[in-house]
Amino acid sequence: MKKPQDSVAKVTNALKELGVNTEVLTFSQSTKTSQEAADAAGCELAQIAKSIVFRAKKADKAVLVITSGINRVDTKLIRDHLGEKPDKADADFVRDKTGYVIGGVPAIAHKEEPIVFLDETLIQFAEIWSAAGSPYSIYKITPQELLRITGAKVIKVC
Fold first, then answer.
1. What is the dotted CATH code of the domain comprising 4-155?
2. Residue 31: CA count within 13 A, CB half-sphere
3. What does the longest C-alpha to C-alpha distance in the chain come to?
4. Which residues form the signal peptide (predicted)?
5. b/e string for 6-43 if b means 16 or more Cβ within 10 A?
6. What's the chain's average pLDDT?
């Protein structure tokens, strides 16, 4: 079984390879929830780029929706862009497709390339915080850099 620090190292290395100049921070307290991550980062809850994984059944692919920590994803809006209603992804599916556990799924460096959507409300911020491969690690990034490294499609998610 992969150790959490291996997952964080994978994300850290991917960020460097992608030319993102940021530091991955690891905390003793959890950053699994958006509120916990905001508390650790010292930022607004809305600045947390939470990763929610759904399943595209037809393609058997992960659908990664990166949304603001204050928003709840409307799957009908995702369906409009995906062409099918996304299914809920259980912990095993998330781990199998992304290589990470729920609560630490990063926007990058997945086991299998997901379909990626980015919440349009995140674009308004100068900086946002994203999971870094474990439920204890996050990193700061601009929305524009996150778009560049994920190739996400910016959409309305709520």
1. 3.90.960.10
2. 31
3. 41
4. none
5. ebbebbbebbeeeebebebbbbeeebbebebbbbbbeb
6. 96
